[in-house]
Backbone:
């Protein structure tokens, strides 16, 4: 039975991303080249892209990157709607997991890398709660990255696995390149370490250049 670990990147496309969107797209193209050319990793992982601004859109359906000829590009749009991103991510995971199981795959809990540089313009907590509902079996492990004017506490609360905030030691463009590099390493290491007996452990670097790891506050 084929084993599959789905990865999603959920990226802010609001107008405040204008100066860094090219750096992020370059990083995603490098990710495509690295993962798509590794047959072992590409066989055991799938990758999808969701962009969000005032609304959210699937830019790359969950795919085997060895079969993707061109990486989907992010484009600057309007505001910042976290809720739309979380709602679409849940709906997309629901459909993707069902399809993979219908295809006869053994599917592991998805990983979602969330990236934003600003404050949300819309209510989002209800959609986030649905996405992370413990009663929903496919709920993803979320790795959250924030930079720019994003609220540190907000990013810390979104990440269920790990959270990072840009610390100003690198330019925003270089920091986003490091974000893409961390995502690439996570996919490659997680896919490589997946064993035939079904043992899978999501691999995410503890340190990412240009970012500080955050700890969620205990209530």
Residues:
């Amino acid at each position: 039975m084929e084993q599959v670990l789905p990865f999603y990147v959920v990226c802010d496309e609001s107008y405040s991303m204008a100066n860094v969107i090219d750096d992020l797209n370059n990083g995603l193209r490098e990710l495509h080249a690295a993962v798509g050319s590794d047959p072992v990793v590409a066989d055991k992982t799938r990758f999808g892209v969701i962009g969000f601004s005032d609304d959210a859109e699937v830019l790359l359906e969950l795919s085997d990157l060895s079969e993707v000829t061109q990486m989907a590009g992010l484009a600057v749009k309007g505001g910042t709607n976290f809720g739309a991103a979380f709602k679409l991510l849940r709906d997309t995971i629901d459909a993707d997991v069902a399809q993979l199981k219908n295809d006869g795959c053994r599917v592991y809990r998805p990983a979602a890398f969330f990236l934003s540089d600003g404050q949300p313009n819309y209510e989002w907590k209800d959609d986030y709660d649905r996405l992370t509902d413990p009663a929903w079996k496919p709920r993803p492990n979320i790795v959250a990255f924030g930079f720019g004017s994003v609220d540190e506490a907000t990013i810390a609360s979104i990440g269920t696995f790990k959270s990072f905030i840009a610390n100003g030691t690198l330019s925003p463009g270089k920091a986003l390149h490091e974000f893409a590099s961390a995502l690439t390493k996570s996919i490659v290491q997680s896919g490589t370490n997946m064993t035939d007996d079904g043992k899978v452990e999501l691999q995410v670097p503890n340190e990412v250049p240009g970012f500080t790891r955050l700890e969620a506050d205990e209530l």
User: Anything to note?
Assistant: The longest strand covers residues 3-12. Residues 82-102 form the longest helix (21 residues).
